[in-house]
Amino acid sequence: MCPNFCILYLENTELTECRICEHARYISRIDKGRTLVAYRKFRYFSITPTLQRLFISPKTTKHIAWHHLYNMVDRVMVHSFDSEAWKHFNRVHPQSSVESRNMHLGLCTDKFIPFKLFVAPYSC
User: Fold this and answer.
1) pTM of this prediction?
2) Which residue among 7, 46, 90, 94 has its CA within the 20 to 30 Å range from the CA of 116?
3) What are 38-44's contacts with CB under 8 Å, separation 24+?
C-alpha cells in the first residue's frame, strides 16, 4: 500500500509509484540481496474461519451468548450491550435479537486517513 495511505496495490500490478501522491512503492535495498522491498504492506485476515472456530467449542459459545441472559445493574453502562444504540438495533431488527448467538461486530480503522482530511493520523 502507499505509505501515505492513498491506494492499495494489487500483487501483480506493475505500478512502481502511487498515482495520487507519486510516492515510490518500493525502498531500493541492494545490501540485503532483495532489490525491491515495499514501504507498507496490507494484511487481510478473513473473519469467517475465526467466527466458525468460536462456535465450535462449547466453552467459547457460552461466552458469546452471555449477553442474552445479562441484566443491567443499577442502570450503569458497563458494556456496549447496555447502550441505547444496541437496544435500538434490537428493536429495529427483532429477528437478530432472538438468536442468542448472534454477534454485533465493531470496526476499528487504526491510522486510516480518509481523503487526507486530517494532518496527523488518528490512532484509536
Assistant:
1) 0.42
2) 46
3) 39/2, 39/3, 40/1, 40/2, 40/3, 41/1, 42/1, 42/8
